């Protein structure tokens, strides 16, 4: 039987096990379906360092060209490099990556020209269904004149564009430890921040795990998990570095640790970059998802900006940014979105803003970060439950009649209290899990609210 695409086509991308779910045949069918559904006849295709990437990219190109599209084969790419190609060349894009997932996985992220996202509600469901029909025996679309594949290297153009957006040439010298996690940061960091292709910057880069290796021999390429930044934290402290940066597998996310090896929260980075962007574009809108710190909209307002609260997920934040012409957007997961990067997310550009903020003055990364931290957060807490929606309603009922409490249903359930505490409880898109995020003005307030909600969720 043909693989069932509904099992591994997710809300925003395709992600599954190589061999049993993802095969060249599946990717060829998706390539043909993508052209048929979108009508786009120009595509760029790239892949990360996973072993299956080149074969999958070639298979997608076969399906796409047979359906009449021309394909730019970009070869090795970070996800934000692929967005750069889609934006600068005005072509649709297909990026083969499973981001931070383990070695046995691969996946596919697609976008329209100008890096506009393709998710289930913007074409991915139709592509899935068309590809499934092809796999089940329906003839694949064949153009009278097939397209062709052209190979092109975009690394230098990408590096030059990034340096154009954030000029680091005049900052004070900084020592920076970068953990690429054997992912695509090992390919892009030397080009953008080093002297591999462009003039040297005043940066002394200490490279950790820059060898491209899709088996991830040192640690998972997911810096959101504390265990995966232990080596970075230790190296920063050992070497007296000014800060540390950690990229995930496809390098679309970047995490920061200060000179003491302490993680800087993505909310603090969001607020920091927001103030920098607002200094250049006064009065602009800034997007933040609803589980970033309450400090973010406060700081944006104080800086003269217009904060916009969105659902969690890149397709939602990108849509709001485009509708409202927002200059910048940030998520709790360290995805950072920029208007001057086609409203797409890029870990590299976020890292460059942090380096500029530290290097333009004489303050440390921790001093800067502390400016943007006002509350105590729980971090995301997952609970396995049989009926997520029923548990959400139980929590809603608990607080429905409470004085001084407001609730909303933008994404799951959010409850907010007069003392500044708030909690969000939302179901996972893919698992029987509830995800809880809590924030309070002090540890005691946060812990009390966290424990009260978990008692309901886990009983």
UniProtKB/TrEMBL annotation:
Alphabetical keyword list: Isomerase, Magnesium, Metal-binding, Phosphoprotein
InterPro entries: A-D-PHexomutase_a/b/a-I, A-D-PHexomutase_a/b/a-I/II/III, A-D-PHexomutase_a/b/a-II, A-D-PHexomutase_a/b/a-III, A-D-PHexomutase_C, A-D-PHexomutase_C_sf, Alpha-D-phosphohexomutase_SF
A Gene Ontology biological process term: carbohydrate metabolic process
Cofactor dependency: Mg(2+)
Single Gene Ontology MF annotation: metal ion binding
Residue intervals of the Alpha-D-phosphohexomutase alpha/beta/alpha domain: 9-130, 157-261, 267-372
Ranges where the Alpha-D-phosphohexomutase C-terminal domain occurs: 380-455
Gene3D superfamilies (UniProt xref): Alpha-D-Glucose-1,6-Bisphosphate, subunit A, domain 3 (3.40.120.10), Alpha-D-phosphohexomutase, C-terminal domain (3.30.310.50)
Family recorded in the similarity comment: Belongs to the phosphohexose mutase family.
Cross-referenced NCBIfam families: PRK09542.1
Protein name stated in the entry: Phosphomannomutase/phosphoglucomutase
């Amino acid at each position: 039987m043909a693989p069932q695409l509904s099992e591994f086509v997710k809300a925003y991308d395709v992600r599954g096990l190589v061999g049993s779910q993802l095969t060249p045949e599946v990717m060829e069918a998706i390539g043909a379906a993508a052209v048929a559904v979108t009508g786009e006849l120009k595509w760029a295709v790239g892949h990360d360092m996973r072993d299956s990437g080149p074969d999958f990219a070639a298979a997608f190109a076969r399906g796409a060209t047979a359906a009449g599209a021309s394909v730019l084969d970009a070869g090795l790419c970070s996800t934000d490099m692929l967005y750069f190609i889609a934006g600068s060349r005005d072509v649709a894009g297909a990026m083969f990556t499973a981001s931070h997932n383990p070695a046995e996985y691969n996946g596919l992220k697609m976008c329209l020209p100008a890096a506009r996202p393709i998710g289930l509600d913007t074409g991915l469901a139709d592509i899935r269904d068309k590809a499934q029909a092809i796999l089940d025996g329906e003839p694949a679309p064949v153009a009278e004149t097939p397209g062709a594949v052209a190979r092109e290297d975009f690394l230098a153009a990408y590096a030059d564009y990034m340096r154009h957006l954030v000029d680091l040439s005049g900052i004070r010298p900084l020592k920076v430890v970068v953990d690429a996690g054997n992912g695509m940061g090992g390919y892009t960091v030397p080009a953008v921040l080093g002297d591999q292709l462009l003039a040297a910057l005043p940066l002394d880069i200490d490279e950790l795990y820059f060898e491209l290796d899709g088996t991830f021999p040192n640690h998972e390429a997911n810096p959101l998990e504390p265990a995966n930044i232990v080596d970075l934290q230790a190296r920063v402290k050992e070497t007296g570095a000014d800060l540390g940066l950690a990229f995930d597998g496809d390098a679309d996310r970047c995490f920061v640790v200060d000179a003491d090896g302490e993680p800087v929260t993505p909310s603090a980075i969001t607020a920091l970059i927001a103030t920098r962007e607002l200094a250049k574009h006064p009065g602009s809108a800034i997007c933040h998802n609803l589980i970033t710190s309450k400090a973010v909209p406060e700081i944006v307002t104080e800086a003269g900006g217009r904060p916009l609260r969105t659902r969690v997920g890149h397709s939602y934040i990108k849509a709001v940014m485009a509708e409202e012409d927002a200059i910048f957007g940030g998520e709790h997961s360290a995805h950072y979105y920029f208007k001057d990067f086609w409203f797409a997310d890029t870990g590299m550009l976020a890292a460059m803003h942090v380096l500029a903020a530290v290097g333009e003055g004489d303050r440390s990364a921790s001093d800067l970060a502390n400016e943007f931290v006002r509350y105590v957060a729980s971090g995301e807490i997952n609970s396995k439950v049989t009926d997520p929606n029923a548990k959400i309603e139980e929590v809603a009922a608990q607080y429905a009649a409470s004085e001084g409490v407001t609730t909303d249903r933008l994404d799951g359930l959010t409850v907010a209290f007069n003392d500044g505490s708030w909690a969000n409880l939302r179901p996972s898109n893919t698992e029987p899990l509830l995800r809880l995020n809590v924030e309070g003005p002090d540890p005691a307030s946060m812990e009390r609210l966290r424990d009260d909600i978990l008692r309901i969720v886990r009983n």
